[in-house]
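Tip: read the tokens left to right.
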């Protein structure tokens, strides 16, 4: 039988290729530097070729070493998926689960759903990682994340996904602005305004433009926000208008500011919130249950919001219904 590398040897090689430093790689693998170095030397002897170029001051992978390390990542991830599959057969909703979430979802959705998840899945240890969509998908591909909460549509690659909710857009403008006098705003009206958007890299930027049917719409060229809270402050200072998703409005993001929100009309004035995971993952049942719980929590919030809006309409007339529903401040 042909001798084969061990998973431990491959893991050590990947760690060194990633860091180009034996000491840092050994620390990441929780072993001594001598143990790690000896293991890689055994791997090189097994394969009959050097995988690393060593000097007194540095270590670099050879071209073959880099290629083997990339293939090793896939083998290591496959082994992890086998373990996950076995554990999931016993209790899908137990143990650690590393979940990515984008910045335009995390601060507004997570405080609402975490109590539900803790109560529904008491044995699940949920670890959150907030980042932009492209970087979350990269971490998902390498196995650093198990799943991610994203805003769709987005070219996510070879993943499986389940929809959680539709998150409608509203136009936010100062009180007294021409858009504030109507019960809803049309995309053509928004196109005439200085539209404040998030900086490149945030998918909400593209979703907002798509909701207004704008490919290169008029926008404030002097400012690009890094967060929705910053955009709101810029609107309050009279620099333009912006589009916010409903979950941000429900969190009370406009509280204390002389701003109003008007629902956006149009063909698809919303973004989709979805849970995505690797197609090869062994925890698909866990993700389906997680998606179901998230969907239920979001639907319950929408029902409560609808009841609040109806109550305001009955009490104060149609004008009150056009205002964003009051919400509890996010934790």
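Filled-in amino acids:
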């Amino acid at each position: 039988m042909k001798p084969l590398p061990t998973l431990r040897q491959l893991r050590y090689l990947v760690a060194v290729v990633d860091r180009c430093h034996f000491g840092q790689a050994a620390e990441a693998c929780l072993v001594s530097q001598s143990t790690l170095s000896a293991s890689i030397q055994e791997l090189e002897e097994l394969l009959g070729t050097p995988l690393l170029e060593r000097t007194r001051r540095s270590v670099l992978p050879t071209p073959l070493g880099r290629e083997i390390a990339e293939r090793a990542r896939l083998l290591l991830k496959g082994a992890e998926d086998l373990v996950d599959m076995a554990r999931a057969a016993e209790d899908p909703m137990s143990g650690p689960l590393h979940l990515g979430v984008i910045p335009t979802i995390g601060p507004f959705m997570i405080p609402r759903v975490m109590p539900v998840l803790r109560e529904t899945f008491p044995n699940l240890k949920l670890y959150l990682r907030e980042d932009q969509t492209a970087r979350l998908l990269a971490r998902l591909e390498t196995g650093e994340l198990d799943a991610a909460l994203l805003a769709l549509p987005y070219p996510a690659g070879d993943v499986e996904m389940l929809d959680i909710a539709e998150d409608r857009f509203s136009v936010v403008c100062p009180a007294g602005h021409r858009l504030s006098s109507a019960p809803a705003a049309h995309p053509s009206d928004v196109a005439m305004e200085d539209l404040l958007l998030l900086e490149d890299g945030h998918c909400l930027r593209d979703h907002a433009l798509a909701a207004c049917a704008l490919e290169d719409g008029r926008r404030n060229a002097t400012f690009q926000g890094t967060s929705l809270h910053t955009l709101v402050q810029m609107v309050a200072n009279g620099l333009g208008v912006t589009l916010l998703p409903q979950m941000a409005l429900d969190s009370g993001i406009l509280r204390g500011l002389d701003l109003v929100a008007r629902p956006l009309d149009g063909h698809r004035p919303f973004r989709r919130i979805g849970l995505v995971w690797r197609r090869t993952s062994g925890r698909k049942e866990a993700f389906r249950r997680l998606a179901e719980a998230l969907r239920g929590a979001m639907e319950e919030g929408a029902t409560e919001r609808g009841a609040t809006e109806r109550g305001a309409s009955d009490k104060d007339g149609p004008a009150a219904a056009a205002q964003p529903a009051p919400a509890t401040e996010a934790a």
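The chain has a mean pLDDT of 85. Residues 284-316 form the longest helix (33 residues).
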